[in-house]
Structure formats: structure tokens, C-alpha cells
């Protein structure tokens, strides 16, 4: 059969001949048509028969032997390049399988999580940016966010609109922002505005000396701020305290700036206050509690009350909605921590009561009310019950504990101030006699005795200021003379007050005595008097700015060549009255 003709079905292939089909055995090709012996590198490749070729079952074993022989022959006769190609392809396949299986086995990742104060670069969803591009460009970032909102890079940036959030407390208690019409919002804090501040300073008997002392004190505090925005009770100044409390020190320093009208938005100390408030807000937990480094956990609730005053006052002064969330959370914690049995607060939440800690919490809740935050009436009702249990002489004096135990001038002044906030009228004879008795029997003096107590002075200054009239004049005649004179005027501590001789000074330190001294000298405008606040603010705001004299009336009698810290005639008279008493 000529080369290229198809073989008959059933004929077996013969080894050694080219072609894809076996040659028929019955018709061998002529010798002239047979191929020459194959040369090196040109051997024919014998292939298996097609799958459709019919093979007898009896010949299966022979075929298998022949197939093995054929495969060996193919491998022997295959070109070197083909063998190399097949080998490398197989090698690549094996390596690929190994690599894939190794990757699959190592898909479990080890993740290490850590927390930092500052956020890194945040990923943004482009679809969100497209829909809110205008809002993002026109609205500044918010100051702080609740835990379930997206954090922002600068928590003290201008506020975004936040949803109306309420914090659930006890079943019958909620702390929510309330809508107050007109000047009622923050009315008690409006005296801190520049023009109003100067007018109130004049109206209530401040002097150039008192205001210069405040300014020097704030400058000293600004110099003591640490790089992270906080303050410390231990230093870097001299005469630090015996124990550390970073959040309390930070809150006390900030209260001095806020009392003068300085916020993170306006005033001479914008950067200082901004850093300080950022630091304080970083110390607020999700529960609302302000915590941080403190040596004694018995100071925890003192600290929280002070920090709550800061945030509530700042909210009341700026009306920034983004501040309402941390303020609400802080107030919520105050309410939750109240001793439901005793009615006050002490060292641990819901456990026991004393007048000292309770006084700080009443001021915190009063600051919340000034800022327009609603406090459930039952909270103040429980405080009244506690004060009733701690009062002496029907409320003219107070003990540190229930039953009037451990009474001091400081806790008596604190109890009377609480009564003013809780609604006792100005002419209540218990209030009049109690405050008047303290002013006369425990005057402001730096004699190193028990009455040299800046903590007591801080409370009686507020209570007497709210009483106004002769009671306030008597106390202020000592306050405005003695406190500025005891301020350090030279050296690295210029502007501060030494704790030497103070009842608690050695324990609390220089920052403590300085802050409380500044609060006292800010009293003229720091809080409007409770009983005439509306009239007081209306009277001074009706005056044209040109008629508001920044210098108090008493300074008009001073000769032109008198030094700035020289007492005027009115101050000399006050000194004589103080010494004769």
C-alpha cells in the first residue's frame, strides 16, 4: 500500500515505520519503498493506536507489554529539547503547587494592637465624600465625639452639628440639654465678657490691684503648663504638693482661665486653654468619669466634680454643641455617683456622704444648670436631705459628716453656699446669720493659724458675694487688700501664692493655693450674684462701652505718682477695719 493510504481496521502496528497508522502485515511494502535506516537525532516516534481502533480482549496483556515497550522507545528516541521542555514544565508545575499550598497554610496573620492618643491618617469612603463634599468644606471639625461616632483629628476644632443625645441613668433620671429662652442661657457666666467684666469689677468693689493680681496669676499658670497640656500638683514650680493628681491640677488651672473669660476661642490664652481642654477631654472615660494619674483614689470624685465644672462652664460660655456630649456624660456620672441613701457624695460612687465632696458636686451641677443642662429635681432633693442631716443650729452651720460632726468654718461656708444654690432666699435668717457669723468670727488673715485657710476663703467669698450688702463689703474689704499683697512679685514664682502657713498648703502645694486665690479675686465677675444676677447684668450692659471705667472707683483717690500696688484710701480703711476686728 502506498505511503499515506489508510490502514485497514484490525491490523496491528509494526515497530520501526513512520506514520500515524500501523502498516498492514499481509501486504509488506516493497524494499524499494522502505525508508532508510534512521540516523541519530532523526528517529521516528511511534504513537499508540487511536482509541477507536478495535483490539481483541484476548490480546490485552500483549498490548500492555507492547505499550510499555513503545513508551520506553518513545522516550529513548525523543529529541533532547523535547525532554528538557517536558521536564522543566513538570518542575514548574510542582513548584507552583508547593508555593500555593505554602501560601494557603500561612494565611493566619498575627496582629498586634496598641492604642495611641493621636490618630494616624484615616481612610475615607469616596462615595461618602461625594455626597457630603459641600458640608465637609464648610463645616469645621468637631471638638469631641461620643464613642460611637467617627473620631476626628482635632477634638478642639470648631463644632459639627451633633444629634440630640441623652444619657440614660437611673430609670427616672435623665440628663439632657434643655431649651432656655433669652438671656437665661449662661446668664451667670456672662459677667466674664471683657466690657461686662470691667463694669462688674467696679460695681462690686474690685481694684486695679485685684485685677493685676489675677493677670499675674494666670501668667504664672500658663508658664507651668506641661507639654502635653496638663498641669501637675508637684511641679515644675517650687513648693509642690505631697501627692499627684494630674486631672485635678489640670481642671483647677483651667477654671482660673475660664473665670477670667479666657476660652479656647478668645482671650489672651487661647492656646493654653485649648491644649488644657484637649488634655482633660482625653482623660474622660466612656462612663463620663474624668480619671487619670492620681496618687490617692479617695480624690477620684473630688477630681470628677472639678473637671465637670470646667466642661460645663466652657459649654455655657461658648455654646458649642459638640461640648454638650462630654458635659452630659460628666453630669450623668455625677448623678449616678450620688449616694441614694445619704443624699451626697464622698470618696466612692454611691457610698456615703460628706459636706466637702458634696459641695464640689453641688457646684458642678449648678454649673450644668448655668450652661442650660437639665438636672432632675430629685437629685437636689437628696442633697437637701443630706444637708439637713449635717446641719447645726437649724442650718446656720454644718458638720463635715451627718449629725453635725467635725464642724469647721470651711464646711460651714460650703454648706451655706449649697443652701443658696438650692433655693434658700437671701433674707433667710439662718443664711444671713450663718454667713455673717463666719465673716466676723473667721476673718481673712495670713497669721498662720487655723483661719489661714484658702479653702475656707474660697467658699466664704462666694457665699458673701451672693449675699451682697454689708456682709459682702465687710469680707471684700479684707479680700481685696490682703490677697493681692501676699502674691509673690519676684523670681520664677512671680504671680503665684506660697502655700506656707496655709492650713492645707503643705499638703496641696503652690498650684492649689494659687488657683483658689485667683478664683477669689475673680469673684467680682466670675459668677453673677444669685439673687440679683439679672439686674446686675442688665445694669452694666445698658452702659455705653465708653462709660465703663476699667479702673475701680476706689483707685480714683490714688495720687498719680503712687505705685500700682499701693493701697488707696478705701483700702487703707479696709485694712484698719480688718485689724480692729
Largest sheet report: 2 strands, antiparallel
Q: SSE order, as H and E?
A: HHHEEHHHHHHHHEEHHHHHHHHH
Oligomer: single chain
List segments where confidence is low: pLDDT < 50 over at least 5 consecutive residues: 1-59, 103-185, 542-581
Using only C-alpha atoms, the radius of gyration works out to 44 Å
What do we call the CATH topology of the largest domain?
Glycosyltransferase
Report the helical percentage.
Answer: 40-55%
What average pLDDT do the residues reach? 74
Number of strands: 4
The proportion of residues in beta strands is under 5%
Placed side by side, the strands forming the largest sheet appear as: 1-2
Contiguous helical run count: 20
